[in-house]
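When time allows, look over one protein, given below as sequence and tokens. The question is which stretches look regular and which look disordered:
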Amino acid sequence: MIVLSGYIARPGMLYGQTATVSQLQAAAAKATDSARYVDVMNQLAGWFQHRQLDSCFLYLCKARETAQRQGYTRGEAAAYRGLGSYYAYRDNSYLSFRFYIDALNLYRELGDSAGICQTSMHLGVYYQYEKQYQEAGEYMKRALDLGRRLKNDTILMALQANYYFMYVSDLRAGRSSDLVDKKRAYRALDAARHMATRAGDERLLLYTGMLQAQELIYGKIATAEGLTKLIGLVEDAERKGYVYHAMYGSSHLAYNKAHSHQADSLIFQRQMVRLALKGGYRELALPVVSKLYAWYGSHNQSDSAHIYGTIMLDIVEKEEQSKTQGELDYIDYYMQEKKLRALQLQHDYQQQLLDKKAMESRNRYAIIIFLTIMLVLTVLLLTDVNRSHRRSRLNASQLGEKNREISEKNALLRTNDDFKNKLISLIAHDFRVPLNHIIDITDLLKDQSLGYEEATTLFRKLETKSQHTLHIFDSILRWIRSQLSGFVYMPVVCTPATMVREALEILRDNCTEKQLTIHLDIPDGLKLLADREMLQFVHRNLLHNAVKFSPPEGTLHISAIVEEGQATISISDEGKGVDPETLLYLFEYRSREKDRGRTNGGAGLALIICKDFMDKMGGTIQAVNNPVNGSTFSYTLPLAKEA
């Protein structure tokens, strides 16, 4: 299902005519590299968001780049919010969530209630589609509370429409909600429709009209009337250039026709694919393209099947490219922040040097004047010379101490730079495996050597591995942040038994392939005090290594021991164990540099991060070889105290 909850414009920013784009582009040319330029780029991105997604992305990138260079925080936050919506349409939930959170943090720093309200609404819709309904309800409730206080009709009508959308989503899934009830949902939709009519907002009029038509269809109130109304709205949306709205309506028409077993469902499916490719919303059309490919293949229409097979392959390739490029852009964004902080520190240091030189210059002038006077006063000359000599020795000692401090800092900077280079190479090593899987699958698809079911199975495995890699990547980013100043450790109560089961679920395919037997002996009532994301990173990596080095048909033992207010969680395998020389330096970064070639680089980095996380959580981590075969990795953390 496709959702409409995109970019929200302020009054006076709803553009229904192509001439408006020319006016904005002319305004951008006059306001190059300024806050006004950033605002215009964000406005253009909002105009194109439901018309041409690729153009929307270009304007958002220009807005973000200029806002960061100018230090224009409000424009940067608006660009991040737009990027969150962009990646939602690109079906990249990870980057969508990250950019929404970045936008929300900036709006909170600015105290911008309108920005907080709109971004909270987007996060509510995001969590609704991620099936995290409690978080979705909390964010939408915050947005509604803020929206009522703001009394901004443009924001309120979008909130009311999305409030109704959440009700419909819960209703069709057969799920009850504490936030949304039927009467309030219908009132909200009517209110949104009334405000859109009063404001002349074409985009929201199309959206609310389609929601009302769907209510007639899915509520079985007046199905024929609803279908006729929805077809008219689709035609109106395409005529006015709202490609996304036309695609959205076409998807519902195709679903209804297919559900009713009507032959013209193929017409609307093809129409939806055409509109998606026209507007750049290709990832959202992938399920429909797959269905069309399967249908034409099963009905021996090879030409049509070939066309949609080619489209499907093109969408998959571009989707992977978009995800990879988006993740690289996000890494670059964090690296830019780090560079800015480094430049600020360098500026402060240089300013201190200039102040010191100015002070030394003033001291030299004072000494010259003093010595000139002493030439006249012969009696005081010897006393002042002795005093100057003592002062010079003191200055020399202080200067030597400063030089030593500078040398130590330079050595530390070189060490950090070397660590950064190794970190990048190790991350590249870990991410090469899923990329190789993607290349292999692409080659198989090009050779047409896979059937539909085999391709589906491979894609499912690839999705699991990609999610695992993204989890690792997110934890590495969290670890990098923990190395920076300002990190505050805030522990929560964690249940290791539940967390270990979640980590094992990611490795289920690997365990099945090796036919491993897993003995989990951790009480469900055992609770630890830790950072959940840090602790889950440790679980994933220790379990991944245990599965990786276990022999086929081996056994994993996962157990817990409680002693003196602490719990020790152990993971034992039946593999070959760890080389004794490597075991001594398994969790040390500097020592591992000497042993390169004996251990896997990516696994070494993960164990170093595990050790660092345990230090920050007040725990310990250790590894030993078993007496017979295999090895045991364990960590110790304090128990959570009863409330």
Summary: Residues 5-17, 591-602 have pLDDT under 50 and may be disordered. The first strand starts at residue 492 and ends at 494.
